[in-house]
Design goal:
This protein is 31% helix and 13% strand. It is built from 17 helices and 13 strands. The strands form 2 sheets. Strands 3, 4, 5, 6, 7, 8, 9, 10, 11, 12 and 13 form an 11-stranded mixed beta sheet that branches. Strands 1-2 form a two-stranded antiparallel sheet. The protein is globular and about 70 Å long. This is alkaline phosphatase.
Amino acid sequence: MLLIPTLPKSYFPSGNRGGCPHLLPVVLICCYFLLSYAPPCLGGHKMTLSEKIKAATATSQQSHTTSATTEDSNYWFQNAEVSLQQKLVSQKTIKKKAKNVIFVIGHGMGISTITASRIFKGQKEGRTFGEEANLKMNELPNVALSKTFCQNSQVAESACASSALLCGTLANAATVGLTSNVQFGDCIGQQNKANHLTSILAAAQDRGMSTGFVVNTRVTHSVVAATYAHSANTAWENDKKVTDSGENSDLCDDTAEQLIFGDVGKRINVILGGGRNEMIPNTTLDVETNQPGHRTDGKNLIDSWLQSKNPQTAKYVWNKEQLLSVDTKKTDHLLGLFSYSNMGYVNEAESNADPSLAEMTKVAIDILSKNPSGYFLFIEGGRIDQANHENKAQKAFLEVLGLDDAILAAMTIDLQYTQMTGLPLIEETHGGEDVAVYSRGPWSHLLAGVNHESYIPHVIAYAACLDFPGKSQFKGVHCYETSSSYLNHPTFQYNP
């Protein structure tokens, strides 16, 4: 193992490197031998692995009351030892078919925002510095970096980034679910189905999986729209936006229409988020705000959704109480629109009677997990980005913690149904910098190193054995029930 210890200049006051200037240029070749012994800070007997993990858990639970004087060398020796043992348990490659996929995006959640949010969490818990705390996403065993850029722009924005993450190819800025043949605002290009990209959610539907998404933005917003829509302008969330651009809304379907009537959108089982304004006509007042809708075509898409579903197994809700009252055992399709536009920030949820991301996630998984063929669930914490744009740092941190709660809920709930779940977490930023990718589950070890954003859904498709553009001729041994079937498969190209 090669270890290159480096510290940024800003780590030392005024650039002073302190008493260890020799550390920076040194390359250390380290051999680690795992021996059974009793380190001084763990007492006089040899602790078993389970005892060490239990001790670490207890330390974590009690550390918010730990003073700085107790965090001495013995404390950190113990911390490192237990962390190593935990890694030895968790860092195992799983080469099985992924039954379920949970895809999480922290929109605008760059590495600096994650770091600051973790410190913020620790300080709220009364830790010495805050750095001692951990986020649930930090506990996922596989971590990678992803490049971020568009086909025609070096710095990515929401639409092209989501097309790469969900459709597996770079696209042009401000377009959703379309190939790079389509430029921004090209209605004719949008109509051409040859330019339509297949999302990983659509591929899951084609495999017979249940699908759904949970967001705290509008359900027609640019990121989640890439799961089901094809739009040459990310702003075309309703028909008026299309006509305001000088295009014919009868020929160029807006995003909301595609969600309700589109080939992919109409098959989505669970739709939870905000954005009633894009769904109702300007002649109808919103149930909470009394503001008129944005649509000028007279369509009430909420009513259209209800009319297209079996009333015995479909439910529409618009507040937290209604959501938590849903009988998930009897519900196969759920539409929840909890706000006029984007949902409120985390600290506004109670006053708005809005559910949290975690609460929406739990309900979604309860419904989707009934399908024996598995499910695909997309989760987006979209208001992190908006808080950062507004220079509201504390709100951004609270949004990260809210997303982290949803990740914890997903990991906890999903374990009740299967141990074979892929859980990628992708950060997205507008700074042009690489972003982090956290993952666990079957084949998640392939999400390592530095990759293009467009690589990520191909790994998911490979793990879940989905027919996805670019990989139809490349399926692994895990996709076939018996050894004889895959060895005789005409397109088998996998070499384990």
